[in-house]
UniProtKB/TrEMBL annotation:
Family: Belongs to the TonB-dependent receptor family.
CDD domains tied to this protein: ligand_gated_channel
The protein's name in its UniProt record: TonB-dependent siderophore receptor
Ranges of residues in domain TonB-dependent receptor-like beta-barrel: 269-710
InterPro entries membership: Beta-barrel_TonB, Beta-barrel_TonB_sf, Plug_dom, Plug_dom_sf, TonB-dep_rcpt-like, TonB_sidphr_rcpt
Keywords from the named record: Cell outer membrane, Ion transport, Iron, Iron transport, Membrane, Receptor, Signal, TonB box, Transmembrane, Transmembrane beta strand, Transport
Subcellular location: Cell outer membrane
Keyword Nucleotidyltransferase: no
TM stretches of this protein: none
Membrane topology note: Multi-pass membrane protein
Main localisation: membrane
Length: 739
């Protein structure tokens, strides 16, 4: 069955959701309670029956900012910290928030961080086609990666230039997506929102998991996740060790790979019920193609001529992180937290480009490039949370000061067609010729320091919920093109904030409205030698959220209007320069539903309409593009994923089946809006079997097969006037043992 339009798919899925919600009122797990009765975290250890490596239970080591979501049942999370830095039920947050739980990550067997949001409204991850190099995601039309909108445990993951830390999804407990500006708590960032990845953390329950995977394109992967209390510590210490090793090719062939090694030790010390210290660390080595592009013919067509070459290829990246999360409760109403992390990244990238093909299409001329990057960053966030009342008004207040610093060094070299041998397009002699390595140029350096202070109050009076926050930032940035060049200094300050109001119309039903602002510094100078002013943005959002009482079913609707000003565009008076005069406006609405009906039976639905256009902007040719749509951002997207586990009374007990639909609507291939990308519908599938259904002695043994784009839809995605190919049908089989 196919869907010609996302609305028809939404209607069908919506009917399914209503039926499931009705059934869930009798079958829902954990007997969900009313909004004001939600338990956000328990001090007692989780029962031994919980399978923590399978995504059950609450593994957050701290209870507020950076601690991650809680109140989780299957695909449904009731409480998250990302939007407020406090334990706040999702229905009380005056902005759109989604949580991808560990169980959903397991069922979909998510292989990259960008793919974790494939079934989340407002988010797209394939604007540049197949690209395992970066965790690139767009939310509501805005790039999250380059605008420093990716977070790990509540702390920004900073990247710049070509150097961006990558996140391994196997090491995560959940991913939280906050849509819309978040500068009022976090400082500079994307107006589209932030992605906050929650690391797996120690728990005081013994558990373990080992798994082996094999799949398309010679993909082989082994992983483990073990932990529990430390023997002899009287329940005050716990550990967790997570690791993964992957050797894989890609559909490009020609020796391209997607290899990774990751190991993440963690340790928790809890000397009392009021004090918790958790050490978090990671070491990761990855190797991907330095280029994933194919030569483009005129008319927006990606050919099958791969632009790279195995004799001069590879993006090799080594990264590490060490940090901690500390929490102390002076009283139940006064809590201090401190989160710290140090990140290091070292990158070496070699690539070849095709810069032209002769008329006979027999010879391609090429150039190449070589770069080395080093990135070091530190982030520190201090939070003080207080609960108090002023007359009939109950307050949850958070005050904090945070600091972030990064230093990026870059060396680059390149060779032109006169030094790089041509590619014979008849014999396709990839890898058959020696390709010289360019001499690296001098080291350029970029450093940035950010200090921010923030204050937030969540006030409840009657059925009203008012959330107000404000933050002031100071950002200092230095740039030097070489060790001998003069340092260019650029300082910025900004005040940002958010105000939102919700009303509890009925138990679990909360309509809301909010206004929020954001800013991002921009490096460089205009034609007059003046530093670019920061790009700023604001958003108006209104919506309604509903946690259906007595079930684990949540639905949400949101409409938004975002404007980002002072973006960099070509200067019409001097096209070789840029000016901070452009703007974009993104408007649209989103609908989301998440339901957990029974163990192993879940449903998630997401629909998004986004209309993002240029305002007061020019193209690189100097031509006005006012009113044009931003390229590569589809106007409509729909995604739904459903799993069904046969009940114990069924002859098919132990079997779980599932499937997903991803509809990607039309978008423009270039900012001049001359050509459209066609619509595409992709299908994913899941089949799994728990062997405990045969004999209890096999408890914990599971076989699972996941298929992605199972009907092998061949399509390309064009944006900024360049087209990229996407991954064909892929199948991965897993053998998993949990205890």
């Amino acid at each position: 069955m196919t869907f010609g339009h996302p609305r028809s798919a939404a209607l069908l899925a919506g009917a399914s959701l209503v039926a499931l919600a009705h059934a869930g009122s009798a079958q829902a797990q954990d007997g969900t309670v009313a909004l004001d009765e939600i338990s956000v975290r328990s001090e007692a250890p989780a029962p031994a029956a919980l399978n923590l490596s399978g995504g059950d239970g609450d593994t957050a080591a701290t209870s507020g900012g950076g601690g991650g979501p809680s109140g989780i049942t299957g695909y449904t999370a009731r409480v998250a910290t990302t939007a407020t830095k406090t334990n706040t039920p999702l229905v009380e947050v005056p902005q759109a928030v989604s949580v991808v739980t560990r169980e959903q990550l397991n069922d979909r067997n998510v292989q990259s961080f960008a793919d974790s949001v494939a079934y989340v409204p407002g988010a797209i991850s394939a604007r540049s086609g197949f690209d395992p190099r970066f965790d690139q995601v767009f939310i509501r039309g805005f790039d999250v990666l380059t605008n420093q909108g990716i977070y790990r445990d509540g702390l920004r993951v900073i990247g710049s230039g070509f150097a961006y830390p990558k996140t391994e999804p196997y090491g995560l407990e959940a991913v939280t997506i906050l849509r819309g500006p978040a500068s009022g708590l976090y400082g500079l960032g994307s107006p589209g929102g932030i992605l906050d990845a929650t690391s797996k953390r120690p728990v005081f329950v013994p558990f373990g998991e080992v798994q082996f995977q094999a799949g398309s394109f010679d993909r082989f992967q082994g992983a483990f996740d073990v932990g529990g209390p430390v023997a002899g510590s009287d329940g005050t210490m716990a550990y967790r060790l997570t690791g993964i090793r992957r050797e894989a090719g890609t559909f490009i062939g020609l020796g391209t790979n997607d290899d990774q090694f990751n190991i993440a030790p963690a340790f928790t010390w809890k000397p009392s019920a009021d004090t918790t210290f958790t050490f978090l660390s990671e070491y990761q080595v990855s190797s991907t193609p330095a280029t994933t592009f194919f030569y483009n013919d005129p008319g927006f067509r990606a050919t099958r001529y791969y632009m790279g070459d195995p004799r001069f290829a590879g993006l090799d990246q080594t990264q590490y992180r060490v940090g901690y999360a500390f929490e102390h409760k002076f009283t139940p109403d006064l809590i201090f937290r401190q989160n710290f992390r140090h990140y290091g990244l070292f990158l070496s990238g070699k690539y070849v480009d095709i810069n032209g093909i002769n008329p006979e299409r027999t010879i391609a001329t090429r150039d190449n490039g070589y770069q080395r990057n080093g990135l070091v960053q530190q982030t520190l966030d201090n939070q003080l949370e207080a609960h108090f009342a002023t007359g009939p008004i109950a307050h949850t207040a958070v005050a904090g000061i945070d600091y972030a610093r990064y230093s990026l060094t870059t060396r680059f070299g390149a060779l032109g067609p006169e030094a790089v041998p041509d590619l014979n397009l008849v014999t396709r002699n990839y890898g058959a010729q020696f390709i010289p390595t360019p001499v690296l140029g001098s080291t350029s350096r970029q450093t940035q320091d950010q200090i921010g202070i923030y204050l937030q109050d969540q006030a409840k009076f009657g059925d009203f919920i008012l959330t107000v926050n404000g933050r002031h930032d100071w950002v200092f940035q230095d740039n030097a093109a070489s060790p001998d060049s003069a340092v260019s200094r650029q300082d910025n300050t900004a005040f940002t904030g958010r105000v939102g109001l919700g009303y509890v119309l009925a138990p679990g039903l909360v309509p809301y409205a909010s206004y929020a602002t954001t800013f991002t510094p921009q490096v460089g100078q205009d034609r007059n030698g003046q530093a670019f002013k920061p790009t700023t943005g604001d958003q108006i959002e209104a919506g309604v959220k509903y946690l259906i009482p007595g079930t684990s079913v949540q639905v949400a609707f949101a409409g938004f209007d975002i404007r980002q000003s002072s973006i960099l565009r070509p200067d019409p008076a001097a096209l070789s320069f840029q000016s901070a005069t452009g703007a974009v406006r993104s408007t649209g609405f989103e609908a989301e539903a998440t339901a957990t009906i029974a163990p192993g039976t879940n449903l998630t639905i997401a629909y998004t309409h986004t209309d993002i256009r240029f305002v007061d902007s020019t193209a690189a040719t100097g031509e006005s593009i006012n009113g044009n749509r931003v390229s590569g951002i589809p106007a409509d997207t729909y995604a739904s994923f459903l799993t069904y586990a046969f009940p114990p009374s069924s002859p098919l007990r132990g079997l779980q089946i599932g499937g997903g639909i991803r509809y990607i609507g039309t978008s423009y291939a270039d900012d001049l809006n001359t050509v459209r990308n066609p619509t595409v519908t992709l299908y994913d599938a899941l089949v799994a079997y728990d062997f405990a259904a045969i004999d209890p002695k096999y408890k914990g043994l599971r076989a699972q097969v996941n298929g992605y784009n199972i009907f092998d839809r061949t399509y390309q995605t064009c944006s900024f006037g360049f087209c990229n190919r996407n991954q064909p049908a892929t199948v991965i089989g897993s053998l998993i043992y949990r205890w």
